[in-house]
Structure formats: structure tokens, C-alpha cells
Amino acid sequence: MPCPYMIADVRPSVRYAFDSRLIFIKMSERLQKIDQTLQQLGVGTSDQVSALFAEVRELFNSEEALHRKENDAANLQAFWTAWLGRKSGVLTRITENWLKPSQPEQKRNVGQELNALKSHIEAVRVEQTAAIEAAAEQTAIAREREDLSLPGVTRPLGSRHPLRQTFEEIERIFLSLGYSVVAGPEMETPYYNFEALNIPEHHPARDNMDTFYMAAPQGAAPLLLRTHTSPMQVRTMEKQQPPVRIIVPGKVYRRDNPDATHGFIFHQIEGLAVDTDITFCDFKGTVEYFVREFLGPKVKTRLRPSYFPFTEPSVEVDATCVFCGGRGCNVCKQSGWIELFGAGMVDPAVYGFVNYDAKKYSGFAFGLGVERLTQLKYNINDLQLYFQNDVRFLRQFA
Ligand code: DAH
User: Would the N or C end of the chain have less CB density within 10 A of its end CB?
Assistant: First the structure.
């Protein structure tokens, strides 16, 4: 259908900008007739009336089709105002100029034609509104629809820190032996950290356990960051009568300068078993079982005499070198053995601090260094790697 408003030499954007006015101008040109009375137009018979209304209807239809195609909200508004505007819309003018002044014998006929035109226009409007709403809804649905062809969001999987893995592995082993896992405070009193573990004030064992002391108000008991998890031996026995079988995983602190084998923070797992009739054999069996579970069935263990103030006798638990299988290498300094951890039978002096009857009860204790055991398991040569959180390091344990 030829477009009545198309002006060929005007670019579309310009045409749109002036469109509402164009409609108006064009309409008034084509519909000059609506500003004249029927008499002036020489329309008398009902056929002539019908033909005139048909002309208007056709004009409306063609304009409406055009707007529908262009689907531009501002122009649509102008279009409806031009037709339905109360003051000077086409329908108003037809009412004023054709209907009102019409001859009495024409009036009924003109009125019917006008009503038919009105309801036609109204029907189109309702239909157009519905179509616009439906289209808007379609657009919204399309916009909100999930595009399943888009690439997914990759969430790189995290993994547990190697130290955490060691903690969990050790906990698993001791839980299977009937031990419970308990946690204790990282801030301790000197009493639990030292005295009750048979390390009195000027004991040389305190030298390598220099730590961080909290500033305490005058008269208040001083507090320190625990240097080992052993204080939980005392705290547990204070609260509980034998049988005691616990492990205590946790952080410990020392005033050490960081290097490949030292840090001011590291991790331990304390172990304590106290009951009637616990012998050195039980101790040795437990330790061997643990080492084999943790490092593998081929590893052999040996107990080397050592000293800790809270165990008697005290030992260092050694294992055949995991790197050379005991033949001798750089890591084990050609000895074939590597040191794993300290342990021993609980010194009866400690029972004195917790009111256990040393004649009735006996037991053993051990203190596992989590960094060290992890180091041996994965051949890690620098303790600082654990704390730098470099994903290139951590990823290897995923
Ligand atoms: N608490 C000791 C330390 O940090 C380790 C230790 C040795 C704990 C022997 C024990 C033990 O329970 O029996 O150096």
C-alpha cells in the first residue's frame, strides 16, 4: 500500500522527528472535507453519506496500517490524538460539522454511520493496544530467557590446604583407635604451658620455647601464646578421670625467626592415653601403627632415647627414610633414618598436678609436628611454603 506520508527525499530519522506534524498536515489536506458541512459538500443521499464515511474509514485504515508497521510510540500517540482528540480530532470534527448541522431527515443515517465508524476505530484501538502489549511481553520473555548456549561460569574448585589434609588424616587414624579430638585455647597461662608439665620457671627446657606474652593488667595472671599443644594434657586430666584417650590438633607459637625450618606459628597434634595398665608396649604398638598408617606399610620405626620434662622415659620416634627407603640420601644425611616426633611415658610428676594416682594409672603422650609430617609425606623443603598461600603450591595438593 502506498504510504501517504512518505516523502522520498527526507531521511527516515528526519521524517520521524516531524512525523506527528506531517500526519496532521496530510490529514487536514486529505480531510479538508471534515471542516465543511454535508450541505457544503453537496452530500444528500444516504449512498453519498455512506461513500463519504467509507472514504474516512479507508483513510483511517491505511494510516493505522502504516503506524502499526512503524510501531513508534510517539507517532502512535499523535495518530490517536489526530483521530480521537476531543477538541479537534477527526471524530469530533465530523460530529460538529457533519452530524450536528445535518438535515433532520439525514441525521439518523449520519448518526448511524458515525457510530459505526467510531466503533470500528475503537475496535482497532483495543486490538492495537493488545498487540502492543503482547509484543512487549514477547520481547520481555525473549530478554529474560536463559541462553543455554552461553559458556558456563567456571568456578575453579578449591582444595584443602596440605596441612589441613594432614590434620584430617591423623585424626582419622586416631579416631579409628578410639581417641577423641579435643581443642584447647591458643592463649595459655604459664601454669598450663610450663609448670603443670613439670617445666618450672628456670628450667632450661623453657629456652627453646620462648614465646609471645600478652600485656596483662597489673596483678592479673600473665597470658602467653602456647608453645605446644601439651597444655591440653593437663587441662583434660584436670577435668576427667581415666581412661583418657585424646588427640589435640592446633596452632602453636614460638618467638622464632622464619626460615626454611622455623616459623613463629606452626601446628601440632598432641596425643595422650592414660588408663590402668598402659605399658611401654602399648605405647610402642600405637606409635608404630600410626607411622605405618601415615607413611605406608614399608616404613620401619625405632625409638631413640630423648628428654622431655613431662615424659619419662622420653623418646624420639624415627622412621626409615621415606625418600631412600633407608639406604641413605641427602635428606636423611646418609643415615637411613629420619626423626618424626617426640613422645614418651607420662612422667608421674605430671599426675601430681592433676590429682591422678600415679600408682594406679599410667600412660603415654606424643607431640606430632604437622608441618614436619606433611613435609616428609610430600617432600616439601621449605616450611614457609605452607604460609604463603601461593596457588601454584597449593594446587599440587588438590
Ligand atoms: N610438646 C613438645 C614440643 O612441643 C612435643 C612433645 C614431646 C609432646 C613429647 C609430647 C611428648 O606429648 O610426649 O616440643
Answer: N
